[in-house]
Design brief:
This protein is of the alpha/beta class. It is built from 18 helices and 14 strands.
């Protein structure tokens, strides 16, 4: 290292240190006292750093984060500020720019990594039940994947499975990558008091605990006593100053329960900061199209999630219904990708077809593959972002990219969704399209977005916003 580069390195470290120390001091003494209007202005500035979701989602996120700050442990507060806000949102621009210069497109904003597909529960309809239970991603391999991601400015990782906490080395992975922020999808059954203390000490882990509703719905799908384990885990997390949330899979039987005021208020009282909604997809264990919410139920959930986001002190998002906020589908590396426990790289956790494996190619090479490029090209042609998904909104597209990209199903029976269930998936997509297409034209087709946040009405010009984000 010559003198100039050495000085540059010291200068950069100094700048990073200043940013992080300033943020921590501000979070303790200034941010909790700021008005929501000022927080929104700060959120807008951070959106210039290629924030992956829409303005409204980030406005709500930062307003609620401000309210949670006084109740978080010191290390959790530092993890959010240093890793998520500083490393991920503020300081990754140069690395992302270098990737764009080399490849001609943006790198993903995050990866989903499934270190294991083993689980201590046996839920009906589990999307990952038929994967091999052998953990082929070693501790070293997972760290190699994350190290490569850091070179592209990726400091946010979602950990899924299986049940991530059944891996004995999972906390070591979080500790070793202390400059990253990890969102972990978990059933919560292994988060006892000691585990919560360890997570609080680490400070860089955000658990999202799976729920199906209240006790009746959760125990019916996850086993007797699981609801009590969920609430116990949330109590442990809240008591240790950890930011956490819920994850709810909508089925035909619980769709309306999980969007009710009673449900949302209950989990707010448990301490949840965030809630994710997922649509049941007929993959994995005994796939059943009849478990999917009806098109009418899905549209009702879409409207209710928007209302909840506007009126409740919790951040909520719907993986299938918030395409307006995320500018369409996230998959194929446009925003994220999934690396499963045997190293196969999938465009999405739910699009379980892969053409390449991380043991054979780097993530950068896989992003440049015919399969992933084709997915991103097809995504660009979807105009109605109320119907962003190539699995349930455009199933013909999924069949097309799998065939042309020479991808194979990654779990036993994974091909059923494009073979045996082909006609049923096409029928579902058509029925939802009959609902969503007129709504898109009437409410969103003019390129203007209106929403209410804490009683105030805002207008967002879509074209201006996304032009700013993309440049």
């Amino acid at each position: 290292m010559n003198g100039t580069s050495s000085f540059k390195s010291v200068e950069n470290k100094f700048k990073v240190s200043v940013v992080k120390n300033t943020l921590y001091l501000a979070s303790t003494y200034i941010i909790p006292k700021l008005s929501d209007e000022i927080i929104i202005k700060i959120s807008d500035k951070l959106n210039n750093f290629e924030a992956p979701a829409g303005k409204l989602f980030f406005d709500r996120l930062f307003i609620n984060l401000k309210r949670k700050m006084p109740f978080l442990s010191k290390n959790v507060k530092k993890g959010i500020l240093n890793n998520f806000i500083s490393n991920y949102l503020l300081l990754s621009g140069e690395k992302r720019k270098e990737f764009i210069d080399n490849n001609g497109f943006y790198p993903p904003f995050f990866y989903v990594i499934s270190p294991t597909m083993r689980c201590n529960l046996k839920c009906y309809g589990c999307y990952s039940a038929n994967y091999t239970k052998k953990d082929m991603l070693s501790y070293e391999k997972i760290n190699n994947i994350i190290d490569e991601g850091k070179k592209f400015g990726i400091y946010f990782y979602t950990i899924s499975g299986g049940e991530p906490f059944v891996r004995k080395d999972i906390l070591d992975i979080f500790k070793r990558n202390g400059d990253c922020y990890f969102q972990v999808y978990t059933n919560g059954s292994l988060i006892d008091g000691k585990m919560a203390e360890k997570l609080s000490e680490l400070g860089n882990v955000f658990p999202c605990i799976s729920v199906e509703g209240f006790e009746e719905e959760t125990d019916a799908r996850r086993g007797k006593g699981q609801f009590n384990k969920v609430t116990s885990a949330m109590k442990n997390l809240k008591g240790n100053g950890i930011l956490f949330g819920f994850s709810a899979t909508a089925t035909r039987s619980n769709n309306d329960v999980i969007i009710s005021d009673e449900f949302i208020d209950f989990y707010i009282n448990q301490g949840c900061f965030l809630g994710w909604y997922f649509n049941y997809i007929p993959i994995g264990r005994e796939p059943d199209v009849n478990l999917m919410p009806t098109p009418e139920q899905r549209n009702r959930r879409r409207k209710r999630v928007a209302e909840i986001r506007e009126t409740k002190p919790i951040v909520v998002a719907d993986f299938w219904n918030d395409g307006v906020l995320s500018h369409g589908c996230l998959s194929g590396g446009r925003v994220y990708l999934h690396i499963n426990s045997n190293g196969s790289v999938e465009p999405c956790v739910f699009a379980q077809f892969s053409a390449d494996n991380i043991f054979d190619k780097s993530v950068e090479d896989i992003l440049n593959s015919t399969y992933f490029k084709l997915i991103r090209k097809e995504q660009a042609g979807i105009k109605n972002r109320l119907r962003p998904c190539m699995i349930i909104d455009h199933p013909n597209m999924l069949r097309k990219v799998v065939a042309k990209g020479e991808a194979k199903a990654t779990q036993e029976g994974g091909e059923f969704i494009i073979t045996e269930l082909k006609d049923e998936m096409d029928a579902y997509a058509q029925k939802y399209g009959e609902i969503a297409d007129p709504i898109w034209e009437e409410e969103f087709g003019r390129g203007k977005f209106f929403y209410t946040l804490d009683g105030k009405k805002y207008e967002l010009n879509e074209e201006d916003y996304y032009s700013r984000r993309n440049h």
